[in-house]
Amino acid sequence: MENQSFDYVIVGAGAAGCVLAHRLCEDGRYSVCLLEAGPSDLHPFIHIPAGFIYVGHNPSYTWDFSTEPSEGSAGRRVTTRMGRTLGGSSSINGFNYTRGQPEDFDQWAALGNPGWRYQDILPYFKRSERFLGKGDSSVRGRDGLLPISDCDWRHPLCDAFIESAGLYGLPTHVDYNRGDQTGAGYYQRWIHKGRRFSAATAFLNPAKATGRLTIKTKAHVNKILFEGKRAVGVSYQHERGGAVHTVNAKREVILSAGAANTPKILKLSGVGPVDELQKMGIRVVHASEHVGENFQDHYMIRTILRVKGVTTINHTARGIRLIGEVAKWLMGKPSVITISPSVAFAFTKSRPELDLNDLQFHFSPGSYASGVAGQLDNFPGMTLGFYQLRPTSTGQVSLRSRDPFDLPLVQPNYLQSSEDQQVAIDGLRLSRHLMHSAPLMPFIERDEFPPPSAESDSELLDCARQRGTTGWHFVGTCSMGKVVDADLRFKGIDGLRIVDASVMPTMPSGNTGAPTMMVAEKAADLILGKAPLAA
Fold it and tell me: Is residue 241 pLDDT above 80, yes or no?
């Protein structure tokens, strides 16, 4: 049985784990061990942006969670895949860079978490990024390790959608990460010179050069090891039934396994709700009733239309046309190889009387089978998906069994609240308005989903329930104020912190990759005892 000691042991090499490993190694005083359950990120499709079509559905590189059935999903299980490789989901997902609204983080602070106001965390967003586009340098980072570029690929359907948003009253071609999201345009993404820059590429590679980082892949963590109420290490296996290895943490164990796996590891370790642990026959090390609660995810609802008179990615990404796109990519030209499933965006309100935007729209000049990104329909289509930015429905993550190789039970309770149901209805009505506006009308052949016959609130809500799917944005299950304190230390346990999206008490307004990296940037200073960056 292998047994090694390090100053810090980080569980999970996703966006948070990679950033954190880099900052702790960069400090120059400490040794760091980073444990990742998946393989290395050597697969070439990880580094080719359009490779998400392949690796994003490859169980060798993904956690294939399946949600529990609920009324909000019409009794369906919704499959959602998270990254299981170096870089985590930043290596296999859609790579759009979205910070959220300032009010999101002001709310975190208002909930009793000092130091998390927007003005406090903005410097940590800036520290990570190297923004390559035009923007205000007072709010955008220019010197970070993560290159963020504007989409340089253009399509007439995207242009028409952005024009439609303009006619609706939204400003166009805005920097939606400047602090005010309102508007429409092409997404920013972590792509540079035609290649995906995952968190592993941006942060782990320079960390390796310090000589202070040890990375263990295919290391499936079983549980945290304790001496009394202090975390002192973790145990892991390379395969079910294989030898058990341990790594000791002289200073801290840091869980960065994500909002589904972090609570699972805690519960398997005897930390969590007493009733659930006792039901599973797990000895209680520390009672923490809120572990696994407050689960939140964005519920994506898509409108799909067949189009005419224009070539969509349904055809461009196949056959001889795809060969031509690869050639463009190899020559450094804009290509379908470098686009995300969502190419253009719009942020707006579902109702004009609201104070804040509550909808994020994702437009694609193509359509995907059953709304699953990566599986193209065989007809030319266009898609406008949306989700409610700050859903009020919450769920939970619980244990399936005591077997650490079993995935946890995930129950999001999509559309449970009446407020979320109304936003879904309003969002579908607005989607229909935008997709049938004058700039897009010349391209429309017919509606695919929802059908034109769906007009009443109840019919539209049924459509949302029948075809809605995940936004791949799991957060909240070990939230600040309830499970961890504002310094991300686990309440009641020494030597244990959580640094990932599970600590977010509420959902940020957008894709969660950028806020997760920000959390890790700030956490590094908290762990190292450094003064916070100037607000």
Answer: yes
Q: Please list, residue by residue across 441-464, b when 16 or more beta carbons sit within 10 angstroms of its beta carbon and e when fewer do.
A: eebeeebbbbeeebeeeeebbebb
Residue pointed to by tokens 């399946």: 66
What CATH number is associated with residue 327? Answer: 3.30.410.40
Contact 500, 519 (CB under 8 A): yes
Say what the pLDDT of residue 381 is: 94
Last residue of a domain, one of 440, 467, 494: 467
Same domain, 282 and 305: no
Distance CA 292, CA 169 (A): 41
pLDDT of 117 higher than 90: yes
Tell whether 181 and 284 lie within a shared domain. Answer: no
**What's the pTM value of the predicted model, to 2 decimals?**
0.95
Interior angle at CA 88, CA 474 and CA 477, nearest 5: 25
pLDDT tens per residue across span 248-302: 999 999 999 999 999 999 999 999 999 999 999 999 999 999 999 999 999 999 9
Token pair listed for 369: 């089978």
Q: For residue 500, what pLDDT band results from cuts at 50, 70 and 90? A: very high
DSSP code at position 371: G
pLDDT surpasses 80 at 3: no
Q: Are residues 207 and 135 in the same domain?
A: yes
DSSP for residue 2: -
32 and 125 belong to one structural domain: yes
Q: Find the mean pLDDT for residues 300-306.
A: 96
Nearest CA to 412 out of 481, 478, 484, 470 is that of 470
Which amino acids are annotated catalytic?
473
Per-residue model confidence (pLDDT) at position 372: 59
Residue 406 lies in a domain: no
Contacts of 420 by beta carbon, 8 Å cutoff, 6+ apart: 72, 299, 388, 391, 392, 393, 414
pLDDT at 348 over 70: yes
156 C-beta neighbours (distance < 10 Å), count: 15
Instruction: Extract the runs of DSSP E, i.e. beta strands, from 114-189.
Output: 129-131, 146-150, 183-186, 188-189
| Residue 271 lies inside a defined structural domain of this protein | yes
Are 507 and 494 in the same domain?
yes
Which one, of 212, 208, 197, lies nearest residue 87 by Cα?
Answer: 197
Residue environment code for 113-129, b if the CB has 16+ CB neighbours within 10 A, otherwise e: beebbbebbbbbbbbbb
Q: Does 405 reside within a domain? A: no
Within-domain flag for 419: yes
Residues 213 and 174 in one domain: no
User: How far, in Å, CA of 91 to CA of 12, rounded?
Assistant: 13
Residues 351 and 491 grouped into a single domain: no
CATH number at residue 521: 3.50.50.60
Lowest mean pLDDT among 272-286, 367-381, 390-404: 367-381
**189: pLDDT confidence band, cut at 50, 70 and 90?**
very high
In the chain, how many domains are there? 2
Mean pLDDT of 75-81: 93
What is the span of the domain harbouring residue 83? Answer: 1-147+194-296+473-535
User: 130 and 158, same structural domain?
Assistant: no
Amino acid making up residue 15: A
* pLDDT score of 298: 97
